Amino acid sequence: MSDLIQKLIAECRRIEEDTEHSSKGHYNSGDRWGRYHLFLGLPAAIVAALAGAAAFKDCPDLAGSLALLSTALTTVLTFLKPSERAEMHKSVGGQFHALRNQTRIFREIELSDGLDEPTAKKRLLDLARLRDELNMASPGISRGDYEKAKRDIDSGRSRYQVAGAAR
User: So what's the pLDDT on residue 114?
Assistant: First the structure.
């Protein structure tokens, strides 16, 4: 195996590691924002319903207080847009995961199949460019989401169970 192919394999492994951490971090962010949506949206809906019931029972002070609380929760929900953020992070996580898979297939199959060096180098540079573009276009993730991803990866939760398959 040539020196260039060995360097391409090493760089593939770096891309795989980067994209694995990014993917898991974004999935964690998506889950967290999804919980925020539930924790804000469900109480807002329940409080709004209770405000309506209080109004029908001729309890204007209670109805007004509940309506204000519902409005506050709905305003926070509208401002933060947790459902949109959750979907965005899950989408980006999927894109990083797809890039990881493409890089692994390139490393394990395409490079082993006798791909000529100039083509292999170009393919790796395309994968690296795609990773860089995803990094620049992606929303940030919290330190906690990253650390949870790192703990999951370090504990082996993302390793393939297929015999002979490397991470």
Answer: 83
